[in-house]
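Researcher: I need the complex structure. Ligand is guanine. Inputs:
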Amino acid sequence: MSAVIMDGKALGLKIREGVKEKASALKEKGITPCLAVILVGEDPASLSYVKSKEKALHEAGMESRDIRLPEKTSEDQLLSIIADLNNDEKVHGILVQSPVPKHISEEKVNQAVSPKKDVDCFHPESVGNMVLGRQGFFPCTPHGVLMLLREYDIPVAGAHVVVIGRSNIVGKPMANLLIRREYNATVTLCHTGTKDLKAFTLQADIVIAAAGSPGMIKPDMIKDGAVVIDVGINRVSDTSAPKGYRLCGDADPAVMRKCSFFTPVPGGVGPMTIAMLLNNVIEASNKFEKKI
Ligand code: GUN
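Model: Output:
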């Protein structure tokens, strides 16, 4: 079997075109969608992520409020900046790039962002709404995965999906979205405490790898014809690469000989995250317009 490569870059661009139209409709009503993007510290990977997010916002005709804070910023200073942004009517969404420096509590930061502006879906109220099947923001990366599955007509309802990884950003929300009634999947959530990972992945119609472990998913772990969605973005050193590293997913690309569909790294799930973030900024701006 040779796998269909799922093109997240193309779908991401298509979604961003739709976002641009929605942004333009809002602008005609006098609202320019604006996302505050906060980066604390100088981590190069985080800096490159926030720059991509800001560029994508501008390309879609939206605004970004770029806030760069030094590593030594105190927790109180950051919380006070977030409080000001919560009250700022020109800002519709707030994103604090994760991870924040160790002396700042990520939990307090997540709770400080108003749920109305929580485009990452990190606030406990947003997470609660998502788990309870209520309306609200969907977290960007898991939502991007669902959009990719839909684009390629891959049935999710009734499918057995094995999610690998229990992070708050991907694994946990991914599993919770999949069991909402509108997706109706049967989900197994595996993690570092799982004893025989292969015994579970071999039963999966869809494997979603979000473990942060380069190349850990091997062909002998995949059922013939299964779908492999690779959410891992790992930097592995490569002296022959211009930057001294290359990006590598959690799946060994050799799994392609076993599966029916496969997301590449880069160019699979990654571009979908930004597209769904922009979509959430539109949603936040719409709520602002309707005062809900
Ligand atoms: N760090 C890694 N992924 C994300 C994300 O989706 N949002 C934020 N705020 N930080 C991240």
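Model: Summary of the prediction. The radius of gyration is 19 Å.
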